[in-house]
Amino acid sequence: MIKKLLGTIALSLVCGVSVAAGGGYKLDHAPDRINDMASLQNGAKLFVNYCLGCHSASSMRYNKLAEIGLTDEQIKKNLLFTGEKVGDLMHIAMTPQDAKKWFGAAPPDLSVIARAKSTTMGPSGVDYVYTFLRTFYRDTSKATGWNNLVFPSVGMPNVLWQLQGPRSLEHVTVHDVAQADGSSQWERHTAKYDAQGFSEIKTEVLKDYEGSSVDKAVLSSPDPKQIAAFDNNVADLSNFLGWMAEPMQLQRKQMGVWILLFLSFFLLVAWRLNAAYWKNVK
Amino acid sequence: MAGEKTVETTGLLGWIDRRFPLTSLFKDHMSEYYAPKNFNFWYFFGSLAMLVLVIQIVTGIFLVMNYKPDAKLAFESVEYIMREVPWGWLIRYMHSTGASMFFVVVYLHMLRGLFYGSYRKPRELVWIFGVAIFLCLMGEAFFGYLLPWGQMSYWGAQVIVNLFSAIPFIGPELAIWIRGDYVVSDATLNRFFAFHVIAIPLVLIGLVVAHIIALHEVGSNNPDGVEIKQGPKDRNGHPVDGIPFHPYYSVHDIMGVAGFLIVFAAIIFFGPEMGGYFLEYNNFIPADPLKTPPHIAPVWYFTPFYSMLRATTADFTWVLVAGAVIAAIALFLKGNLKGIMRIAVPVVLLLVAVLLRAIDAKFWGVVAMGGAVVILFFLPWLDHSPVKSIRYRPTWHKYLYAIFIVNFLVLGYLGTQAPNPTFNLMSQIGTVIYLGFFFLMPIWSRLGTFKQVPDRVTFHAH
Questions:
Q1: Band of the pLDDT at B462, cuts 50, 70, 90?
Q2: Which residue, among B66, B285, B299, B459, would best test binding to A if mutated, counting the most A CBs under 10 Å from its CB?
Q3: What is the dihedral sign for C-alpha B10, B14, B18, B21?
Q4: How many CB atoms lie under 10 A from the CB of residue A254?
């Protein structure tokens, strides 16, 4: 009981978020593990096992994973299931037409999804993926039985549900609702979803409410250890997607340091050369 | 040696010089082109623009070797360049960063011209060629932006091409003619590719050559706006306040190149997306003709003009009507137009005022956006100030320039944002300030107390 309570409190601290007016769900900051090969490898494993069934990554070759420390042998043994070759691109068998029929929308290709989901001068796409995959909740009113806080009514079911374990959600929103007569009143909506996805939704009118709008979602789990392990795995998976969106990014930054050092030296030489010529100009 | 011309040079160079004016070209444009010795920081950007042009052409050649101008293949071919082509990622980032940096250096180069009156007599053609280069650059950037075939490429092109459909009578057919289809499609991609890699670069290079020939014909202006050719001369007839471009400014510009490359490399290697401004994140989603993105914004360098387009609503045309009517009355009563023009110009302005309400505001938005660029062509004749350089203008002129610059930046910011009533009002005010700055220039540029312009350039030895 105490454990359960502590878990709830811990999760409330982690997941309790308020949403800025007009914006979407406030994204959590994913841990930065881009230089952590073990994390990238775990992410690659999760990606191939859980994502690659429905999502392709058609710009990505399996043997590109050599850059995060996997040998061809390891890739063949652990990541190739249906007769692909190690030099193949990560295509899938499902056609976009079938996908559209089955899920309502074709699952996007994930090659560059972490870049595509970044926000201008805002959170990165890795943050998006990290938050998105951790905010699924059971909702019996949806066709897949799942709903998501970052992407409401998403067509994708929670494929990581076994890793995540059962969870319930309490979602409270307070906002100003326009009435038919042109006036407006503050209302509080409380939606509770239990671990099976059955909901209890309540709306109350707030008289004399003086605050601003509120959007607060609290996901609770009976097992904080499982959730910690789950978050860790999702962090690795998001990290991998971030790497896959631009596999040369590690090289790029390393090389950049040397190039800037060289250019600084070049500037120094150019500056002195210029001074040597210009000393005669009176 | 019958028929051969006598030249000073010998050997291979002599052989060439007897057949091609190599030495004299080098002298005319480099070693004996006398430039004022008082150039400051602002004078780096001309040579930097040349550098970026070369970077764009060279990287562009390598990109074309691997890119596929086909709606089905384009998006993935860019990722192929990023991942599989040796050094492709570097070439592509140089090209994408180069596009934005081209506008950075060109905007600063134009601002320099504005500050020091570099467009004034006798340099009108230098300026006009320059504005034409700027127009080409905008075309080049617009056509090139479609090629990665991402969502922003697609919908950005869709929005801009649709602007042409606002032109009365011929508009809708014109838009179809430009696209080659009813929507932006493979046909559009192919023709934009042709424009981006052949047509516009050819024109651009021709204009750059004309820009430099015109400049070297009249000589460079300088921060004091003083003509060095009218100042004292040495015994060889060269202006005392001028120094040979080579070696003095060639070594000086190399220093500028080094400084620029540090910034350029820092962006390429540590933040090629520049927070989503140089490479828009939405453009990593493949183009989808069936899914309009919620917010379509052009790349940052177009946003000031895009703001002016969006600012021109039906209500706002009343402001423009008022402007046209006031201008018509003022020109008729006070203007110094002669003869028939004194009647004709105000009549045309009144006609414009009527048309402003008769034709859809969207069309006038396009006119405002285009006019904001085209008006730059007329700058040499709009500025009536007795001095060239900002240094000798009344202090309040400097504040006007400051307002103009801040206004341009604010318009740029507003253009990146989703519209809302406050922002719309701000961009309308911004549009009035931008247009007012130029249209009222013939009046304000001659008002105030001007400072004494020195006979010689001011220069302190380094």
A1: low
A2: B285
A3: negative
A4: 11
